[in-house]
């Protein structure tokens, strides 16, 4: 915050308030003048009239020296008090800049007189002198400001501030109460985005969990009643029902795990990752981790490139989860009709690259992702998971990353799908400032390509499109 110009009421010192010249100094000066004049008379240098005139001038000078202060005497107290006032204002400025909430001072015309550092970070450096209506485009905030002026009291309003990240905030405004305020208002903005996210996540969690758990719980209750009834003495029926109950219980476990994971991702979505990771190393690790899963599913993960390196800034565990979820989906739903065996390709690369010659697509294009990331499309890096199945219908492509959306419910439930795997992928990729491009070619398969901004610095040693 800039220190404002304040009027400092400092009066020049009077003769009574100044420390007088020492009496001995005046006597010595007067004696010296008298001795000099006497010597001049004796020597005949001055006539009596001239000596009288010279003595009068010298006396007048001494009198003025006594009565009139020097410039140093006048301005020294003024300079000291002004310095103290400036230092006091600087302390206030440091105090306001230390506040995490944006604070601004408005004049009687709702123009911003001054603001603290948090306010400049939120709205930019050039806001001083601008009308607040052009800075905060929220009718509720302007209404609270008018009400505060009309009622001469503090007002609050819940507002949304649009920008790169939309913020939920509390807008507080109050008139200043001092004689020289002249219509000035103090405004404070408190970011409540995380609080609103927590409330929304809690509501969504309860609604989604209730909806998805209702069916397996009802199924379990029905089987328990059956086992308590006529099937309690039938070993074959008990074994059959218990196997189904185990499958439903495992499905509920996966559902709760995915819901908790999704809620945690949403909570940290605005915090950018900071680790230096290698996409090639992540792809190799996930291939090895998912090999037993592919074997149990009668599938195959096709080996990708080795001895390569393509680096980015990311969260290693979350990127591993992205690859795992995509491979798991491909193994479940990417089997070919002729062999009923899924072949999954995991590749990494840089720059825009299409999985198929001609395909339907949905999601973010490399150009859109590059604009958001502030880099050239050729600088983007990606990890892709592609299957050789029958492909995905064009009408389903835009909705694949929605929560609990399934293209084939009858096929999804036996496979143990929760409908949250791709939603989790979308949130992780979004946290990394990336985007997902989904491509599908009927009879050739489907591909999910996750593009990310490159790591700042030297380029990787992986050629484009590898």
Automatic annotation (TrEMBL):
<keyword id="KW-0808">Transferase</keyword>
<dbReference type="Pfam" id="PF13188">
    <property type="entry name" value="PAS_8"/>
</dbReference>
<dbReference type="InterPro" id="IPR035965">
    <property type="entry name" value="PAS-like_dom_sf"/>
</dbReference>
<keyword id="KW-0418">Kinase</keyword>
<dbReference type="GO" id="GO:0005524">
    <property type="term" value="F:ATP binding"/>
</dbReference>
<feature type="domain" description="Histidine kinase">
    <location>
        <begin position="208"/>
        <end position="456"/>
    </location>
</feature>
<keyword id="KW-1003">Cell membrane</keyword>
<dbReference type="InterPro" id="IPR036890">
    <property type="entry name" value="HATPase_C_sf"/>
</dbReference>
<dbReference type="GO" id="GO:0004721">
    <property type="term" value="F:phosphoprotein phosphatase activity"/>
</dbReference>
<keyword id="KW-0812">Transmembrane</keyword>
<dbReference type="InterPro" id="IPR003594">
    <property type="entry name" value="HATPase_dom"/>
</dbReference>
<keyword id="KW-0472">Membrane</keyword>
<dbReference type="GO" id="GO:0005886">
    <property type="term" value="C:plasma membrane"/>
</dbReference>
<dbReference type="InterPro" id="IPR003661">
    <property type="entry name" value="HisK_dim/P_dom"/>
</dbReference>
<dbReference type="InterPro" id="IPR036097">
    <property type="entry name" value="HisK_dim/P_sf"/>
</dbReference>
<dbReference type="GO" id="GO:0016036">
    <property type="term" value="P:cellular response to phosphate starvation"/>
</dbReference>
<dbReference type="InterPro" id="IPR000014">
    <property type="entry name" value="PAS"/>
</dbReference>
<dbReference type="InterPro" id="IPR004358">
    <property type="entry name" value="Sig_transdc_His_kin-like_C"/>
</dbReference>
<keyword id="KW-0597">Phosphoprotein</keyword>
<dbReference type="InterPro" id="IPR050351">
    <property type="entry name" value="BphY/WalK/GraS-like"/>
</dbReference>
<keyword id="KW-0547">Nucleotide-binding</keyword>
<keyword id="KW-0902">Two-component regulatory system</keyword>
<dbReference type="Pfam" id="PF02518">
    <property type="entry name" value="HATPase_c"/>
</dbReference>
<dbReference type="Pfam" id="PF00512">
    <property type="entry name" value="HisKA"/>
</dbReference>
<keyword id="KW-1133">Transmembrane helix</keyword>
<keyword id="KW-0067">ATP-binding</keyword>
<dbReference type="InterPro" id="IPR005467">
    <property type="entry name" value="His_kinase_dom"/>
</dbReference>
<protein>
    <recommendedName>
        <fullName>histidine kinase</fullName>
        <ecNumber>2.7.13.3</ecNumber>
    </recommendedName>
</protein>
<feature type="transmembrane region" description="Helical">
    <location>
        <begin position="26"/>
        <end position="43"/>
    </location>
</feature>
<dbReference type="GO" id="GO:0000155">
    <property type="term" value="F:phosphorelay sensor kinase activity"/>
</dbReference>
């Amino acid at each position: 915050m800039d220190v404002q110009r304040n009027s400092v009421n400092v009066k020049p010192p009077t003769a009574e308030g100044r420390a007088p010249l020492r009496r001995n100094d005046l006597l010595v000066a007067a004696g010296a003048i008298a001795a000099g004049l006497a010597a001049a008379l004796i020597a005949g240098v001055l006539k009596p009239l001239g000596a009288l005139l010279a003595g009068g001038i010298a006396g007048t000078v001494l009198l003025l020296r006594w009565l009139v202060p020097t410039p140093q005497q006048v301005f020294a107290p003024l300079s000291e008090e002004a310095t103290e006032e400036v230092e006091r204002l600087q302390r206030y400025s440091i105090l306001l800049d230390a506040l995490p909430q944006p604070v601004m001072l408005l004049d009687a015309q709702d123009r911003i007189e001054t603001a603290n550092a948090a306010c400049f970070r939120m709205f930019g450096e050039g806001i001083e002198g601008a009308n607040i209506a052009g800075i905060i485009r929220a009718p509720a905030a302007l209404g609270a400001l008018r009400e505060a002026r009309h009622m001469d009291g503090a007002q609050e309003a819940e507002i949304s501030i649009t920008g790169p990240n939309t913020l939920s905030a509390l807008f507080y405004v109050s008139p200043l109460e001092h004689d020289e305020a002249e219509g000035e208002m103090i405004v404070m903005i408190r970011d409540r985005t995380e609080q609103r996210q927590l409330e929304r996540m809690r509501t969504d969690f309860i609604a989604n969990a209730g909806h998805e758990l209702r069916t397996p719980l009802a199924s379990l209750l029905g089987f328990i009643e059956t086992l308590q009834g006529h099937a309690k003495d039938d070993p074959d029926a008990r074994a059959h029902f218990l196997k189904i109950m185990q499958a439903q219980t495992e499905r509920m476990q996966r559902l709760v795990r995915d819901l908790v994971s999704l809620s945690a991702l949403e909570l940290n979505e605005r915090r950018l990752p900071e680790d230096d990771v290698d996409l090639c190393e992540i792809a190799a690790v996930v291939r090895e981790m998912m090999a037993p899963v592919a074997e149990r599913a009668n599938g195959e993960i096709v080996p990708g490139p080795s001895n390569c390196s393509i680096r980015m800034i990311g969260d290693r565990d979350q990127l591993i989860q992205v690859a795992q979820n995509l491979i798991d989906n491909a193994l479940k739903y990417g089997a070919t009709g002729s062999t009923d065996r899924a072949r999954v390709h995991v590749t990494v690369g840089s720059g825009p690259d299409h999985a198929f010659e001609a395909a339907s697509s949905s999601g973010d294009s490399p150009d859109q992702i590059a604009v958001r990331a502030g880099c050239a499309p050729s600088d983007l890096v990606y990890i892709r998971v592609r299957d050789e199945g029958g492909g995905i219908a064009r009408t389903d492509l835009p909705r694949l990353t929605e929560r609990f959306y399934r293209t084939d419910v009858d096929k999804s439930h036996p496979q143990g799908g929760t409908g949250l795997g791709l939603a989790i992928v979308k949130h992780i990729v979004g946290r990394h400032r990336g985007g997902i491009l989904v491509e599908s070619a009927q009879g050739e398969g489907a591909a999910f390509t996750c593009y990310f901004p490159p790591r700042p610095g030297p380029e990787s040693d992986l050629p484009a499109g590898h």
